[in-house]
Amino acid sequence: MFSRRDGIPHWPLHVLLVLFTLFALYPILWVISIAFSGRQSLAITTLPESPTALERVRAIIPWPETWSASNFTSVMTEQPFGHWLFNSAVIALGTTVVGVFLACTAAYAFSRFKFVGQRTGMMAFLVSQMFPGTLMLIPLYIILVQWLGLGSSRLGLMIVYATTSIPFSVWMLKGYFDTIPKDLEEAALMEGASVGKIFWTIILPLAKPAVAVTALFSFMTAWNEFILAATFMDQEAMYTAPVGLRFFVGGYSQQWGYFAAGSIIVSIPVVFLFLFLQKYLVSGLTAGSVKG
Amino acid sequence: MRNPVPHPPSSEPGNPAALLTDSSGLDGAPGSGEPSGGAGALRRWRVLVGLFLSLGVALFIAQGLLAKALDSVSTERADRQSFVSLRALEDLVQRAGGSGDAVRAVVDSWKTQLPAGSAVRVVAFSGIRLEASTFPEDVGERAAPRRLSREEKPLYDRGQRLRAAVETNREEGSARKLEVEAEALPDGGRLLSAPVEVEGSVVGMVELATAPLAAPLKPSLPTLLLCWLLPLALCAVASFVVRRQGVLVAVSVVALVVGLGAYGSYSLGTLGAEVRGTQTLVAEQVRAMSERAQAVMAERQLATEPALRPGDWDADAYRRPLGLVSPEGQVNESVVSARMEELRSGVSRAITGLGVAALVVLLFIGLGGVHRTVATVVENRTAYLYIAPAMVGMLVLVFFPFFYGIALSFTDSTLYNAGQPFMNLWVGLRNYVEILGDFNIVKRAQDGSLVFNYLNFYYTLFFTVVWTITNVVLGVTLGLVLALILNVDKLALRPVYRVLLILPWAMPNYITALIWKGMFHQQFGVVNHIIRMFGGQGLSWYDTPFTSFLTVLATNGWLSFPFMMVVSLGALQSIPMELYEAARVDGASRWQQFTAITLPALKPALVPAVILSVVWTFNQFNVIFLVTEGEPSHSTEILITQAYKYAFQLYRHGYAAAYSTIIFGILLLYSMVQNRVSRATEAA
């Protein structure tokens, strides 16, 4: 195989990489061209009865016959997609604020104090990551919809997302808090600062990078979540963007143009966040699992 | 790989803590923090408070249960008495032909014996007529007989419902629908309606409105106080005599048992007397009604054949005789005794359950559990304060649903009976037996050919395992190969390739799944266009299990290689160059360099990544659910999507919960095995 100083020619590698990059990008390019084709069809061009070879090739090249932004404008104006995006944004932001606050305080306690139930608590958080979603889904449905009456409400979904993201966030934040030297806090303690003051004025500012990563992670989870939202939101006005997108191409409706345009609108913020985040995510994920 | 979220070198004992907690030597050794002076008195009080609280709460709950039971006995009595009157009237109306003057005459002579506040009416379906009525609103212009008015449609609808119920039950040969409707009236009385059958067809209905029910017997408060305070007083006296804590606790346990037992026998006695009294009253009612009916029959010269069967008038809402009263109007002792036996076992079960719970509380308080818990909480209050918000959320929305889900798996709860109490739906291990004990992987179709039973648990498990393994292998291979290529020194455009290849991972995966579903569309999908371009025929991908599997494999493969690529690339770049140089100096071949340097360096990064992606793929809901949707005929369902379908498409909540619990068991087993294996490899 190849190591870094091998004197092998580069062009076969480039061929391989280009082919693979095409494979990786093809679905994305394809969505982009449908979104800009101005039509609702899955196909990029209309094929005649007996197409020639050239026309067949044309049908798979992701380049629309005519470019038009009409899908974008009508998905935002004629369809309730703007409203769905708003729902998603409110839910994702709320989840981030609530989830990060809960995770920060809990992680700080787990990192800095020794108390009865510490190990059990951390283990419980870890095991909770193993519950299959469906096992939780029915009871959550009963609690949220039948007992609390929070079906089809943003608040209900926000609470669920915030709590279910706690375990992962706590594991990530605790790891970071552990690396912050304790001398600083000891000094502050000597000066007579309270534990709350130490937490707010020393620990949180120092842990800013980890808090930011956790926040972005919470935001992305809530922004991308599909199953819970699909189960709890049964009024069209309360759909989140994922549920709404599914609505365009699920069942009997086949509005692929709207779907493609909506997908691009939804993906752009996530893709940028993600590209910015990915190295942190990988280390966070794998480091967490080694410890478990 | 840069690691901005570093983790400390595992949690060595006493690691980060002890900073802010004062370590004055009083650590959490149970009970060691108690003051030694006056401990005896403190312990004595603890036992007494424990007994007071546990016995009090248990008795309070028992009192509530008893009140509820007495209430239902009293309602049952009122219902059964009115039932007898209603059925007797129904019998007479039937003999009078269901409509016409004879019916009016019967109601006329019947109303003399109705208690104050009750009323009857007869509705005939032919002509939609109110035949006779003693209801206060039906006087003057509205007096029977007359056609039902528009606002009396509910009345007519009720009659039609009863008719339909009788016909359904007759057709199916079983009691499936209620043949008598009962509803509460605003004034506290009840309105009962029963169909009237003449020569095998329903021609009308009779209704009886009763006077407000008598208030049910209330459980006595003095008994409650006696059962509560007397054992407590005994225990208090004993506490001055007994010096040893263990003996005192034993005494309090005995006191608890005695108190609760006494109350149990009191409630059984009260309930039993009420139930027996009910039988006597109903029997009296039957005798009185039958005498009255005989008199009316003689007076109005109604048909005496077939003979009256007054015993049948005491019936349930399906008009099935209860058998508690004999045809002669005597109480049927053996049936009543059986009923009493049932009652006794129910009461003793409830009291035993309460007793066990109270005992736990008593011992917890009496042996100092609460004391120690409070001490622990006070000692660590800052820490608990910080954790509390997260813990409350987790308890309500994660741990409680989890245990609720497991409890649900022992019931046959569905969407339709969700309102019923848990214990009524309890089926024990039936769901598990049904899932795990079903080995019918192959079944015979109607034409005799063998077909796979794709709904079978073991098939789905098999498919899930195949799905997980193929996906992880595919993801790791692609990711590793790409990482090795991208790691080649001085490769042009390396950062560009890197960013572009990560894009599939960045897209939200439900969007990806729907895109791929579109690309495999039979008519318009791009994949079929490509096949046609090379002269092939387009496939309908979702029609056979294998091609359907290929579509999800492609989708998930596309989704998962970037993660593996990034992980491997990170590990590869951290290998120091000098190692390869030294190897080359020693004359190692390229392959030897790969196996001796590259692979071992990759292992620490790849092993956790593989473990993680196994769990992810095992639970990859979105791809399966959105791409194949289990097509064809559930053959590409994985465990988690199957559980979802049982829950939210077939609404079998209990069954789906059992299914999910099994999935949880599998994952737990996997993580335990993996933990052990990885520890073993670390040690080696």
UniProtKB/TrEMBL annotation, chain A:
- What GO biological process terms does the UniProt entry carry, in alphabetical order? maltodextrin transmembrane transport
Q: Which UniProt keywords apply?
A: Cell membrane, Membrane, Sugar transport, Transmembrane, Transmembrane helix, Transport
A Gene Ontology cellular-component term: plasma membrane
Domain (ABC transmembrane type-1): residue spans on this chain: 85-277
Q: What is its main location?
A: membrane
Task: Classify the source by domain of life.
Answer: Bacteria
PROSITE patterns hit by this protein: ABC_TM1
Query: Any signal peptide, and if so, which residues?
Result: none
Q: Could you tell me where this protein is found in the cell?
A: Cell membrane
Show the InterPro entries listed in the entry.
Answer: BP-dep_ABC_trans_perm (IPR050901), MetI-like (IPR000515), MetI-like_sf (IPR035906)
Question: What is the membrane topology here?
Answer: Multi-pass membrane protein
What Gene Ontology terms describe what this protein does at the molecular function level?
ABC-type maltose transporter activity
- What parts of the sequence cross the membrane? 12-36, 84-110, 122-149, 155-177, 198-223, 256-277
Please give the name of this protein.
Answer: Maltose/maltodextrin transport system permease protein MalG
Q: What is the lineage of its organism?
A: Bacteria, Pseudomonadati, Myxococcota, Myxococcia, Myxococcales
TrEMBL record, chain B:
Q: Where are the transmembrane segments?
A: 47-66, 221-242, 247-266, 350-371, 383-407, 457-484, 496-516, 549-572, 593-618, 654-673
- Annotated membrane topology: Multi-pass membrane protein
Chief localisation class: membrane
Tell me the compartments it is located in.
Cell membrane
InterPro entries from the UniProt entry: ABC_transporter_permease, MetI-like, MetI-like_sf
Stretches with biased composition (Pro residues): 1-11
Composition bias (Gly residues) maps to 28-39
Positions the record marks as coiled coil are: none
Q: Which domain of life is it from?
A: Bacteria
Looking at the Swiss-Prot or TrEMBL record, what is one Pfam family this protein matches? BPD_transp_1
Kindly indicate whether the keyword Transport belongs to this entry. yes
User: Span of the secretion signal?
Assistant: none
Keyword flag Ribosomal protein: no
Where does it sit, as one GO cellular component term? plasma membrane
What residue spans carry the region label Disordered? 1-39
Key words of the record: Cell membrane, Membrane, Transmembrane, Transmembrane helix, Transport
Question: Could you tell me which residue ranges the ABC transmembrane type-1 domain spans?
Answer: 461-674
Q: Which PROSITE patterns match?
A: ABC_TM1
Q: Give any single GO term for biological process.
A: transmembrane transport
Q: Which family does it belong to?
A: Belongs to the binding-protein-dependent transport system permease family.
The protein in question is named: Sugar ABC transporter permease
